[in-house]
Amino acid sequence: MNGNDRTVLLKLDEVSLSYRSKRTSFEHGQHRVLNRVSLELYEGETLGIIGRNGVGKTTMLQLMAGILAPTEGRVWQMPGKSSSLLTLGLGFKPDISGRDNALLAAMLQGSTQQQAKSYLEDIKAFAELGDSFEEPVKTYSAGMRARLGFTTALMTHVDILLVDEVLSVGDAQFRAKAESAMKERIGGEQTVVFVSHMDGQIENLCDRAILLERGAVAAEGDTARVLKAYRETLKR
Amino acid sequence: MAIMALRADASKYFLGYVWWVLEPLLYVGVFFVVFNVILKSRTEDFLVFLMCGKLAFIWFSKSVFQASTSIVAAKGLIGKINAPKTLFPLALIQEGLYRQAAVFSLLFVVLYGYGYAPSASWIWLVPLLLVNYLMIVACSFLGACLVCMVRDFSLVISLGMTFLLFTSGIFWDVNDLADPQMTQLVLTVNPVAFILDCYRQILMYQTAPDALHLALLGAVFAALTAVMAVVMHRGSQFLALKALSS
To answer: What's the CATH fold of domain A86-157?
Structure first.
């Protein structure tokens, strides 16, 4: 890893996150999601975060996006850089049309109304929703929702793109299209943090990877080496 | 956001936009039957009297109640975007504002029909509506935070609205109480009662309301709104965690 000469865009420093849940058990219900996690994200790189379900991958992205604040430790982001979390089904409102949902989502991610409106036709074309774009989202199938969510998130422009398991959506044809669109973004100057539990995608897309296990970093560095460690954990 | 939500809301029901006006009117109808037909209230022009109070009250109670659960309800969105948390109650308040515009227009038509023509004192509606709006925003912000911290508050707020419904002089006149000191007490302690009384003073009796009292309420609610906005901004991540984890 020769990251010393590159600019650090985002840094997690000994970050822990825990919260109190309802007292449903006799224990005190203190959930520790992340435990003293440190990492650095360099400009232009694609960092993969891999781990099994429930190890804190999504929470880590939420910390990076500033949605949550750490209980301990510090999250630092280079001033003036924007980051955005790309997830499926950006809290769609089921009763309003796909077009309005896309507009709303783009605006909530920081675009102005003008910018958001200019993305709409691109979104419509890429998502291949046709006339359904004007129909309420409640009439959509799960696959259609996923397409709309992925496309909307992809079209908005940010410095750090935080991607949460979005490439496992839609039918095979759309998935291939989504993956190549993703690769195109990654190939450019885009800085990406990519979260997945599927090792194939991490292998294809990432320069560097981190393995999370029970809220802590279990391995870090070269993608192939980290993925090997991940496959070991699956056997256990 | 509010306009989209309204459009969606209207398309959901068979009668669509008609429900905006119909729902509050049905409430008025029920109260009218109970207090005028069954209990024979002696208040003059009871229908107009009731509408002035009830329609303004519904604006307050419905907005605050819906807005108070808005952050928790937007959980899906909150987990994905670091959006300002005041946005969620504000969107619902805005929605309520549009509805209320339709409802108040109807009220004016009824007032006119009963011979209460607009007069110079109606100019007082401007500050009154503003204070009423500030009261809604302040209470909504506070309610939204409380419900986000502890869900049980949503029950408390709902109960509180019923309590206010009975204590704010909607179907009885605060000024008709036997003990004038009690009238004063109700108006001082309960801002909702004062605001509702102001509507009647202006619309029915063509008199100016207690300007100092109104200004004071406006200042208090404006301050509360500002404080809550700062609190919600500073505690944005904390509210997100609360909304996501409980």
So the answer is: Helicase, Ruva Protein; domain 3 (1.10.8)
Q: Are B236 and B84 in contact (CB under 8 A)?
A: yes
Q: In angstroms, rounded to a whole number, what is the distance separating the alpha carbons of residues A86 and A156?
A: 10
Distance of CA A189 to the CA centre of its chain: 17
How many residues in chain B?
Answer: 246
Strands A191-196 and A46-50: parallel
pLDDT digits (tens, 9 = 90+) for B105-142: 999 999 999 988 888 889 999 999 999 999 999 999 99
A192-231 pLDDT per residue, tens: 888 887 788 788 888 899 998 888 888 888 888 888 888 8
Structure tokens at B228: 């809550």
User: What six digits make up the tokens of B220?
Assistant: 């208090």
Number of residues assigned to chain A: 236
Each domain of chain A, given as residue ranges in start order, spans: 1-82+161-236, 86-157
Nearest CA in chain A to B78: A67
Kindly determine whether residue B78 and residue A67, on different chains, have CB atoms separated by under 8 Å. Answer: yes
Q: Give me the architecture of the A1-82+161-236 domain, per CATH.
A: 3-Layer(aba) Sandwich (3.40)
Given a contact cutoff of 8 angstroms between Cβ atoms, the answer to whether A11 and A43 are in contact is: no
User: Residue A38 corresponds to which tokens in the numbers above?
Assistant: 């440190």
| Contacting residues of A for B8, CB less than 8 Å apart | 93, 95-96, 136
**What is the 3-state composition of chain B as percent helix, strand, coil, each rounded to the nearest 5?**
80, 0, 20
ipTM of the complex as predicted? 0.77
B7 contacts in chain A (CB < 8 Å): 96, 100
**Alpha-carbon span B223 to B226, nearest angstrom:** 5
Instruction: Name the token pair of A167.
Output: 């490439």
Residue B69's closest CA among B127, B151, B131?
Answer: B151
